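Continuing the series of single-chain predictions for the mutant panel. This is the parent chain; the variants come on the following pages.
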Amino acid sequence: MSVTQLLAGKRVCICGGSGGVGKTTISAAVALGAAAEGAKVAVVTIDPARRLANALGLLVLDNEPRRVDPGALAVNGTGVRGELWAMMLDSKRTFDELIDRVAPTASRAREIKANRVYRELSTAVSGSQEFTAIAKLYELEQERDFDLLVLDTPPSRNALDFLYAPRRLAAFLEGRAMKTLLRPTGLGVRAVGRGTAPLLGGLRRITGVDLLADLSTFFGLLGGMTESFALRAAKVQKMLTAPTTGFLLVTSAQREPIDEAIWLRRTLARIGVPFAGVVVNRVHHDMLSGREPSQLAAPLAEEIGPALTRAVAQNFHDYHVLARRDQGNIARLRHALGGHSLLLVPYLDDDVHDLEGLWRVHRYLFSPEQERERLIAEVVA
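Parent structure:
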């Protein structure tokens, strides 16, 4: 099984998992591999560290997909037959673009974006980044002719916020509280004002900010636009659960990420998000073919002497412990997944930070099983 088979028939691939397991690297390698096979692919990241741009050899990414120069992608005679595009989400800009889309007029859109409540909502409110990420993904899926969209998500607890965001937004916009605030009579806003007037009045005296006026203006401007937001949120939710979407779970072989991967897989099944498979990254493999490190002492001493033998044997022992730990954790993950495919990417000598490293990871993701086993054997050797 390879990534090509896992993502057969998919137009959207969401790479999720706990932090620090290499999701950005795997996302970029998946996109690179699909482009190498001839597809037109866009990879979207919300990673503020800009590692994706660095890995692709780009100085900067912005809020619109930018095509990566095919010539720059070629390494050691290997290149792409398709197209690779990349972007890094700007949450505020995406929110602004969404307002431009649903506002009835350009002047209404400008008024909303100038409102202080909106500015806070679009930048600081929990979940705004996750919602705008999906809104951008939906826009690309609907309006661009990409064969595959690959999304690099935040750590998994936030990734669930990402998956729940459309449903939560729709529930909020359709709820009684929002309908009360949006009543044409303004009674809803005045009701809020009565209970909080002393606090808001004090805030206005100290800061000069008339929050109640800003709230009243904001909800008045929003008006009937909530229906457009709710409709869009429903469409985004439909995209996330469509059979053309696949969630590719990325984990390392350590105990905590494995535990979280098992929990996340069960949660995905419960909320109905299609599951593509699992990539286990940075796996320590048994380099001793079942032997114990102590068995190496005698043959090593003959080759390099007793002093150096002790240091080398200790290094083998430490790595062997990690390999045994990884084997146990991966076995537990296999059992919990009940037969779903696992793709193992070995622990590499160097951190993946450039195109050469991405191509190396790509080989473990896209090669047939026998070829992948040969590559892993080379690493072990």
